[in-house]
Design brief:
Radius of gyration: 18 Å
Structural class: alpha/beta
Shape: globular
Largest sheet: 7 strands, mixed
Number of helices: 5
Order of helices and strands: EEHEEHEHEEHH
Number of strands: 7
Helix content: 40-55%
Length: 175
């Protein structure tokens, strides 16, 4: 069967955020997630965040990089370690192989959702913005462990090589 198209559901109650990744979570959602995380961290009432991957069928490395960034930022800004829920063995195996147990409290039991979850509206961006976010996400993954450094080195190099070159200014000539 085809995996369900990816979507991201969110809820917030008294500074506690819940982010649910459903279906096939891919690069196309990276800008939406990245922007939401920024808003979440700017919330003066922020207390904690739980990410639920129980309904995730596939997750790409860009999305994993954003999750790693979420954890690193939570630690840096609030000295807080987020909870990551993964009830699917295949997804949990990926998380463990990438060192996510070092930066998240990994829980393998499903979360009981009491909050009303709302779908995040997708943000449409340009290719350069997406390239930059993909690059940042993979650099974050590389920072987690050596295996990730090896796995994503070539991709990061390729993305960096794709960067638009600044246009050279015509040198002003003296009259």
């Amino acid at each position: 069967t085809e995996p369900m198209a990816g979507r991201i559901l969110v809820a917030e109650h008294d500074g506690v955020y819940v982010i649910v990744f459903e279906g096939d979570v891919r690069l196309t959602l990276c800008t939406t997630v990245d922007d939401y995380l920024e808003k979440m961290f700017e919330d003066a009432d922020f207390r904690s965040v739980i990410v639920d991957l129980s309904s995730t069928e596939n997750i790409d490395s860009t999305s994993l990089g954003l999750l790693a960034k979420l954890s690193i930022q939570a630690d840096k800004r609030f000295n807080f370690r987020p909870t990551l829920i993964s009830t699917r063995r295949d997804i949990t195996r990926i998380l463990l192989s990438m060192g996510f147990d070092e930066v998240f409290d990994l829980v393998q039991e499903p979360l009981e959702h009491e909050e009303q979850l709302a779908e995040l509206p997708r943000i449409v961006t340009n290719d350069e913005d997406v390239r930059q976010r993909v690059l940042d996400a993979h650099k974050t993954l590389m920072s987690l462990n050596e295996a990730n450094q090896d796995a994503f080195h070539d991709l990061v190099a390729a993305l960096e090589a794709e960067a638009p070159t600044p246009k050279r200014r015509a040198s002003a000539t003296k009259a």
